[in-house]
Amino acid sequence: MPRLFTGLEIPPEVALQLSAHRGGLPGARWIDPENYHITLRFIGDVDHAVARDVFSILGERRARAPLTVTFDRLGSFGGERPRVVFAQAVATPELQELHAEQERLVRRVGLPPEKRKFHPHVTLARLRDASAIDVAGYLAMRGHFPKISFTAKRIALFSSRDSVGGGPYVIEAAYPLS
Predict the structure, then answer these.
(1) Which domains does the chain have, with CATH numbers?
(2) Which end of the chain has fewer surrounding CB within 10 Å, N or C?
């Protein structure tokens, strides 16, 4: 059973810039830059028939122009029990619309709706036993985050192995934005 999700690839030069924020946080398991991405829609573990349906339905998306994605700050998920450190992407109307389209398409193949709110980001580290104080200190030390932008030119259907997260990810199909 493949574990699938759709997303935007991060160009190598942008991944290199984001990777400069690695280090200095106890309990962090840093994601390899080649596995950076923005998840548009997590699909999960599906059988091969559903995977084929997802592959097919994603080809039915509407034509849209490449879009500019900008990272504007670092943050964390988990509050008092932080789980992730991330680089936040600005949730532009174009990016929100792209996410909504992905949601509609995968629901057409019978998958349940995503329960989590869309928060476009790149996971930089997964945290294990990191204290909220350590994470707050890490974020404070990196308070000046220079904006980093790139143009997304395609949507990817990624697969991952069943693991604790963080890759490796494989691009199973790509759908150009044009």
Answers:
(1) 3-176 (3.90.1140.10)
(2) C
Q: Say which residues have a Cβ less than 8 Å from residue 177's Cβ, sequence separation at least 6.
A: 64, 65, 66, 67, 152, 153, 154, 155
Alpha helices (H) in 38-112, listed in sequence order: 48-58, 93-108
Nearest 10 degrees: Cα torsion 100, 173, 163, 14 = -80
Provide the pLDDT for residue 1: 62
pTM flag (> 0.85): yes
- Within a 10 A sphere around the Cβ of 72, how many other Cβ atoms? 13
pLDDT band at 54 (very low <50, low <70, confident <90, very high): very high
Instruction: Give the number of other CB atoms < 10 A from CB of residue 69.
Output: 22
Nearest 5 degrees, angle CA 84-CA 9-CA 154?
Answer: 140
Q: Residue 109 corresponds to which tokens in the numbers above?
A: 């193949």
Q: Which residues are catalytic?
A: 37, 121
